Amino acid sequence: MSDKVFICRCEDLTQEEIEQAIDEGFTTLEELKCRLRLGMGPCQGRSCLSLARRILCKKTNKSTEEIKLPPSRPPEVPVSLGTLASD
Amino acid sequence: MNEIEKKADIIIIGGGVNGCSLAYQLAKKGKKVVLCERNYICSGATGRCGAGIRQQWSTRENTELSIKSIKIFEKLEKELGQDIGLRQGGYLIIVHNNKDMIQAEKNVKMQKELGLDVSILTPDEILDVVSILDIEGMKAIGATFCPTDGHVDPFKTTHAYAKAAERQGAKLYKFTNVTDIKTKNKRIDCVVTNRGKIKTNIVINAAGAWSKQIAEKLNIKLPNKPFRKEILVTERVKPVFKAMVISFKDGIYFSQQDEGQILGGIPIPNEISGYLTNPTFDFLNHMSKTLTRYSPKLKYVNVIRQWTGYYDVTPDARPILGEVDEIKGFIQCNGFSGHGFMLSPMVTKILTDYITDGKSSDILEKLLIKRFKDKEITHETSVVG
Fold first, then answer.
1. Chain A residues within 8 A of B307 when measuring between CB atoms
2. Do B143 and B109 meet the contact criterion of CB atoms below 8 Å apart?
3. Which of residues 184-243 of B touch A (CB under 8 A)?
4. Phi and psi of A51, rounded to 5°?
């Protein structure tokens, strides 16, 4: 078994990759999103964003309240183009 | 936050692709550069854009700027030492009627004179490029196609510029807001930020949709207006096409990324200018209708996200570059009207040459703000999104 810890399953991101990006200076969740595509897959960050926030808290010595979640983007759950195109 | 520099040769306002590219190039020429970004790098229009790069325009200046820009993009990965996600799958511009075909033929003639590899396609040839399109649904009578147009990753590119700029000694300050700019004898004297004052004689206004507000601090009136633009992305599906498909008549653009997601936008019906950020259902509905008309097969593909960003729009849809007459050292790099990312390599090179060697150019002269005082302006008509 691999000892990699996967944080964002949609985009295949490990804890190590997130920690490395934080070390490079990407110190907010929005910046991590831009850098790594964290939370940009089909689940839209449902599980990974709060996990990544905890990693950020630990690495930057901040409390959870101090770390803002990125804005959530519609349509929240995947909806087909056909459904969205209907009148 | 740490102490900031007290003095710089040049202060750049705005951490988008243009600001970061300028920071890199100016620092490379030995200038002491500070960049102030109110939010984080890529947080504005750059990080929200459709990522397309094209050379097919109606005005000579834009065509020239973009041909040269793509030549720079082609070598950028090597220069910056980082992947920028360049992919040249071409731009397919759909033509819907005879009147637009006359304009397309005119554009192609001018583009060819400038050395561009571009051609006019028949409906059958359109399907050779993008097989999932529906000629009847699109009401297409033909298209123009340039195979060297394509796509570059805005995040990767801007981060690569930022990193390279820092390696050259530039200071990039994120979460740093410029609150005032002071002058002395009609010359830039210093920039005031929420983290302190920085002395300088040159300020570059690369603040995108907020450039107008920056200029107002110096009583310079820019004609730019912010327009909210929307864009959506689907889940990843099997890659089936590489070209960006656009239509000036319908305003739509869409492409498929190598990873499989389809990304595209269209103007929101009846959109008015203003600093609006909320995404709308009108857009989702209008975009989905048009996209499934262009390619009915896509109706089973799921949309996973929509977001908004700004176009910083000028009266002629062309950028404002260069120094203003009123204040020495106040340099504009804004008003890109939706094309700031794709034009950035050449625009920032032209400005770098001007700032470091005092070298002007034909293009720079034509894009100075004073052109709006002339009676006749040449409007760029090849605009989508």
1. 73
2. no
3. 234-235
4. -65, -45
List the single residue in B40, B292, B302 with the smallest CB-CB distance to A28. Answer: B40
Q: What is the DSSP string of B270-311?
A: T--SS------HHHHHHHHHHHHHH-GGGGGSEEEEEEEEEE
**pLDDT tens-digit series, residues B30-63:** 999 999 999 999 999 999 999 999 999 999 989 9
How far is B377 from chain A, CA to nearest CA, in Å?
A: 38
CB B303 to CB A31 under 8 A? no
The CA distance from B251 to B357, in Å, is: 40
Strand A13-14, strand A79-80: pairing:
unpaired
* Host domain of residue B166: 10-47+155-224+316-373
Residue type for position B190? C
For strands B33-36 and B261-265, give the pairing. unpaired
Domain boundary among B257, B292, B310: B310
CATH number of A6-84: 1.10.10.1100
Q: What is the pLDDT of residues B294-351, one digit of tens each?
A: 999 999 999 999 999 999 999 999 999 999 999 999 999 999 999 999 999 999 999 9
Question: What is this model's ipTM?
Answer: 0.93
Q: Indicate the pLDDT class of residue B86, thresholds 50, 70 and 90.
A: very high
Specify whether the CB–CB gap between B268 and B281 falls below 8 A: no
